[in-house]
Amino acid sequence: MRLEKCWFCSSTVYPGHGIQFVRNDAKIFRFCRSKCHKNFKMKRNPRKVQWTKAYRRLHGKDMTQDSTFEFERKRNRPERYNRIVAENTLKAIKTIDKVRVEREARHHKRRMMGKKSKEQKEAAKEVEQSIHMVRAPAALQQESPRTLPKIKVKVAQPTAEENQPMEE
Amino acid sequence: MFTVLLQQQRTFIQMRTNLKVVDNSGAKRVMCIQALRKRKTGARLGDTIIGSVKEAQPRGKVKKGDVVYGVVVRAAMSRGRCDGSEIKFDDNAIVLVNKQGEPIGTRVFGPVPHELRKKNHVKILTLAEHIA
Description:
Order of helices and strands of chain A: EEEEHHHHHH
Low-confidence stretches of chain A: none
Largest sheet of chain A: 2 strands, antiparallel
Order of helices and strands of chain B: HEEEEEEEEHE
Distance between the termini of chain B: 29 Å
Shape of chain A: elongated
Strand content of chain A: 5-15%
Shape of chain B: globular
Mean pLDDT of chain A: 89
Largest interface: A-B, 17 and 22 residues
Number of strands of chain A: 4
Helix content of chain B: under 10%
Oligomer: heterodimer
Strand content of chain B: 25-35%
Distance between the termini of chain A: 88 Å
């Protein structure tokens, strides 16, 4: 059983999932779900759709070059089963995964490094530029109200005759 | 979203469906006149149909107006695979066979699905360029 990659979003397509489209030049497009298939039918470019892996890689959102990615590779020659090798592989998977997660977290941290100071700088600038719009609460109370004062008008009371039902 | 709505709903290969012939038998276009599936709607990927040759090259093995048997090797309607995923192709294409199921031509063009092996069309698979 082979785990393929979705053509659109680059996620893993597990056996029994998704749809395959074979173009007449024998190129196979695999899709993990109908969302990706529909986007393909709409002729969208995965590099321009923000939720795909291709976009994130292209725009430096994700870690692209790392030695942990080297392990995941397409091998056309089946490996001969060896109990020791299989055991070691299973152990290694956990270690490699841990390393990858740590590195990704570091990448994210580095990417977000200047964000807080930048935001604060922008906020300070906004306050400085539009300070004239802010008023003290005491000044607001002293001001005359913006709305018109209420006027009471007497409404004529309806007479008893009008309330009676109409005659046939 | 609009393009999805505008896209044609692909259906079975049924009477009057035009299919491209992807072998060197001489026929170019075949119209389906009968799908050989008992009590079923129509033919799908890998099924055998009877068709009438609508366009043919001169001096081919079949000529225009012949009634021929053929195996659907590509279908635009998606078909479930044995593992639960689905497969679909660009167009509707056929390979002409005789009544015993042996191909008339000696070459097959374009991709064909491996499901033909299940239907005992191994000869078509060996002739094919690509197996999808």
